[in-house]
Design goal:
This protein has about 325 residues and is mostly beta strands. It has one domain: Sandwich (Jelly Rolls), CATH 2.60.120.10. The chain contains one helix and 26 strands. Strands 1, 2, 14, 15, 16, 17, 19, 22 and 24 form a nine-stranded antiparallel beta sheet that branches. The protein has a seven-stranded antiparallel beta sheet with strand order 3-4-5-12-7-10-13, with no helix packed on it. Strand 14 and strand 15 form a beta hairpin. It is globular, with a radius of gyration of 19 Å. GO terms for molecular function: metal ion binding. Belongs to the pirin family. Its cofactor is Fe cation. It holds the Pfam family Pirin. This is Pirin.
Length: about 325
């Protein structure tokens, strides 16, 4: 695999397609062999836009998480969330679901039988720092998020902070996650925090970001030290900015778990596979979901190694 092209101090990271359940394919943008993380963001899936008229849409049975937060952001469609805390929430475009796994949680994600014709959104993970990853699980739904409009550009802060806008979502490290919508062809300069590293993806349309042409299917890593970034579009476009202070704790990521060592992952897998149904003692039971919980895949035959944010082994 060739090294992604570098343009100035930016790096273009092409995504790849991954099946999610039986009916959904996502473009996985992080982790990438050239860049494991952006701030504490350690996983980015972009799905759609898909036509799900007469189709089931997203159907993901109960499965576990630990050591992370999940962020679900829709621009089209509807997803029904259930988790082992007893949360039951429909998420629709422009609203945020944030689930903090802490030591362990299980959840399911399904498109309900009656649903819009389209499905389009992001699912992202935030790695929890050491002082938060063993804590209790929680779930948040935020129907109102801070935004500002500058001509044909609307910026909505989904997670963390950007300039003077701060999301109400509870996070455990300095972060930025923001949607930038251009309603027409326009240029715009976005102020940034030079202490953060950043990445940008395009959900729809075409854009030029820091002089780099960007289309859906790739993530542009922008590095740190920037106090602004120039954006330009030739028509309507929807972008998403990821940022945060560099995350210095090496991680082991495997299946739905984020840990610090091979033994962390072995323990989480064993505790998910124990009990009836799966994982009931550590991860809990997702009530109200008729689907059977997902079994964990077999572990690799070699020990899993912790990697830093660049992908280097610990």
């Amino acid at each position: 695999m060739s090294t992604p092209p570098e343009i100035a101090d930016s790096v273009l990271l092409p995504g790849h397609d991954v099946p999610l359940g039986r009916y959904t394919t996502v473009r996985r943008l992080l982790p990438h062999r050239e860049r494991r993380m952006i701030g504490a963001w350690c996983f980015v899936d972009h799905f759609g836009p898909d036509d799900v008229s007469g189709r089931p849409g997203m159907q993901v049975p109960p499965h576990p998480h630990c050591g992370l937060q999940t962020v679900t952001w829709l621009v089209d469609g509807i997803i029904e969330h259930r988790d082992s805390l007893g949360s039951h929430q429909l998420i629709t475009p422009g609203r945020l679901n944030l689930m903090t796994s802490g030591h362990g949680i299980a959840h399911s994600e399904h498109t309900p039988p009656e649903h819009p014709d389209g499905m389009h959104g992001l699912q992202l993970w935030i790695a929890l720092p050491e002082d938060a990853r063993h804590g209790p699980a929680r779930f948040e739904h935020h129907a109102r998020l801070p935004s500002r409009q500058d001509g044909d550009v609307t910026v909505t802060v989904v997670v963390g902070r950007l300039g003077d806008l701060r999301s109400p979502a509870g996070v455990h490290s300095p972060l930025a996650g923001a949607e930038i919508v251009h309603d027409a062809a326009t240029s715009h300069t976005l102020d940034l925090d030079p202490a953060f590293e950043y990445g940008m993806l395009v959900m729809s349309g075409q854009a030029t970001v820091a002089g780099t042409p960007l289309a859906p299917g790739s993530l542009l890593y922008l590095g740190d030290g920037r106090d602004s970034v120039d954006l330009a579009t030739e028509g309507p476009a929807r972008l998403f900015l990821l940022g945060g202070e560099p995350f210095d704790e090496p991680l082991v990521m495997w299946w739905n778990f984020v840990g610090r060592s091979h033994d962390d992952i072995v323990r989480a897998r064993a505790q998910w596979m124990a009990g009836e149904p799966y994982g009931s003692e550590r991860f809990g039971i997702v009530d109200g979901c008729p689907a059977d919980p997902l079994p964990a895949p077999e572990l690799p035959t070699v020990r899993l190694r912790a990697r830093d944010r660049h992908g280097n082994m610990d």
